[in-house]
Write a structure and sequence with these properties.
A hairpin with a 2-residue loop joins strand 6 (143-146) and strand 7 (149-152). A five-stranded antiparallel beta sheet has the order 1-5-4-3-2. The protein has a two-stranded antiparallel ribbon with strand order 6-7. It has three domains: 2-100, TATA-Binding Protein; 111-226, Endonuclease III, domain 1 (Orthogonal Bundle), CATH 1.10.340.30; 238-273, no CATH class. It is of the alpha+beta class. It has helices spanning 13-17, 67-74, 81-86, 92-100, 111-120, 126-140, 157-161, 165-169, 176-188, 202-210, 217-226, 238-246, 250-255, 267-273, and strands at 2-7, 26-28, 31-36, 39-46, 49-54, 143-146, 149-152.
Length: 275
């Protein structure tokens, strides 16, 4: 195994990996076991240092960046987090959120992996999403070894596109299987070029994503934020919507650009706002 040590100020590994952005990292001993793209890794944090052990990666690989740069990019360690937090409004709600989430960074995820995972997340709790992710990786991904541990990469779109209905059903996808397979077919055929979409504007990117099977406003914003680094994108589920509608702070509403991201308040949020 290769060991890389990387400076990680203003970073909380556990908080970041358990924040609902990614669902395949497993807690082991004093660290987390998973994969960055198709590179198996075991990551530990000691104070402001990340210690990352890498397993063997088969050749050819999709990843060509040096390992330290790979980790820095994935965990967004190049973002000036302290400066970003200092720019927040001096607002009680925002201050509480900043203090609670201190050290949490927005992971830069592989585009297909992120899109597919969030298609599978629809109407599911985190524990269930983790089970689906693990099942897809084990059944359709590629096996990687790291020390005495085994991890599986996320399956390529081609593998999902040609998967049998029985195989997908056994991954506990339910009605999501049809949407995942249909989107995988669009991606694997080249009709939807996820990498080329990086050049689109926010509005155009959201429109393209929402046209994919199984993708609505929330999932589109998750993918924009976590895979395309569109930091103005703000995924809003029913709980966030209720919180924003209930809070009287205009600065908090402005900070999340609630009205400018294409969200329309649901009937439930309209009732909440009238309370």
């Amino acid at each position: 195994m290769k060991l890389v040590e990387i400076s990680s100020p203003d970073f909380d590994l556990e908080k970041t990996l358990n924040s609902g952005q990614v669902f395949h990292w497993e807690k082991i001993d004093n660290g987390f076991l998973g994969a960055i793209g198709d590179v198996p890794a075991c990551v530990q944090q000691e104070d402001h240092i990340l210690k990352v052990h890498f397993g063997e990666t088969r050749k050819p690989t999709r990843e060509t960046r040096p390992l330290p740069r790979l980790v820095t990019h994935y965990f967004a360690l190049d973002h000036p987090l302290a400066e970003i937090c200092a720019s927040f409004p001096d607002d009680a709600l925002m201050n509480a959120a900043r203090d609670f989430c201190r050290g949490l960074r927005i992971i830069r995820q592989p585009k297909w992996e992120c899109l597919a995972t969030f298609i599978c997340s629809s109407m599911k709790q985190v524990a269930h999403i983790r089970q689906i992710s693990a099942a897809l990786r084990t059944r359709f991904g590629e096996r990687r070894e790291i020390g005495n541990h085994v991890v599986y990469t996320f399956p390529h779109a081609q593998h999902i596109a040609h998967a049998s209905k029985t195989g997908l059903r056994e991954c506990k996808l339910g009605y999501r299987a049809k949407n995942l397979c249909a989107t995988a077919q669009l991606v694997s055929s080249g009709e939807c070029n996820l990498e080329a979409w990086s050049a689109l504007s926010d509005a155009e990117l959201r429109e393209r994503l929402c046209a994919l099977p199984g993708v609505g406003a929330k999932i589109a914003n998750c993918v924009m934020l976590f895979a395309y680094e569109r930091l103005r994108a703000f995924p809003i589920d029913v709980w966030i919507e209720r919180l924003i509608s209930r809070d009287s702070s205009e600065s908090a509403k402005d900070a999340v650009s609630y009205r400018s991201l294409g969200h329309r308040p649901s009937k439930s949020s309209s009732r909440v706002s009238k309370r």
